[in-house]
Design brief:
The protein is an alpha/beta fold. It is 48% helix and 15% strand. A hairpin with a 5-residue loop joins strand 5 (127-130) and strand 6 (136-138).
């Protein structure tokens, strides 16, 4: 299974990516994880990525394309992969198509998660992250046992800059301007599967698995 997940920030792509990658026994390739690792290490790439992410902007294509292309050459992608957070625009989608075509390994499907903007703001603005271990909580949906304290390592929780309401709204504007057009791109290629991201995590996962199996059977 060679799969791309698309949808607005806060639609649950990261959570579903983990479950779907495990179900189909393929690597979960997240550009977000790579960026955060570099940010934590204060590398040149990390500092550059952070300057965009803190403003709710997307990281430039030049930072991501070659990195993704290289990642797809690793042995663990031989039986498939799941891309989460890439491609983010039509130019990246075309670049990915070219890379996969050169290796004769086209995508099987593109799964789009749909969610209202009001629900996205509610989800993301309530998220809190541990400063030490990176564990995530939510002020209403997944509360820590002690307010502001990580259950796992007892360190302080904080709100990421890109989880603040004004930044979330800007991220949604950027998504509508730059990323949403890839939905039309993949629809025209006959690869798009659209589904609601409302509901419990397990329910959404099973819905996604059923849709994917039906589409690629």
């Amino acid at each position: 299974m060679r799969l791309v997940l698309v949808g607005p920030p806060g639609a649950g792509k990261g959570t579903q990516a983990v479950h779907l990658a495990q179900h189909f026994a393929i690597p979960h390739i997240s550009t977000g994880d790579i960026f955060r690792s570099n940010i934590k290490g204060e590398t040149e790439l990390g500092l550059l990525a952070k300057s965009y992410m803190d403003k709710g902007e997307l990281v430039p294509d030049s930072v991501t394309n070659d990195m993704v292309a290289d990642r797809l050459t690793h042995p663990d992608t031989a039986n498939g992969f799941l891309l989460d957070g890439y491609p983010r625009n039509v130019d990246q989608a075309k670049f990915l198509d070219g890379v996969l075509a050169s290796r004769n390994i086209p995508l099987d499907a593109v799964l789009e998660f749909q969610l209202d903007n009001s629900e996205i703001v509610k989800r993301l603005s309530g998220r809190r992250v541990c400063k030490n271990c990176g564990a995530t909580f939510h002020i209403t949906l997944d509360k820590p046992k002690r307010d502001g304290i990580c259950d796992k390592c007892q360190s302080e929780l904080y709100q990421r800059e890109d989880d603040k309401e004004e930044v979330i709204k800007r991220r949604l504007e950027v998504y509508a301007e730059q990323t949403a057009p890839i939905v039309s791109f993949y629809r025209e290629e006959g690869l798009l599967i659209s589904m609601s991201a409302e509901g419990e995590v397990e329910e959404i996962t099973q819905r996604a698995i059923s849709a994917l199996k039906t589409a690629v059977s």
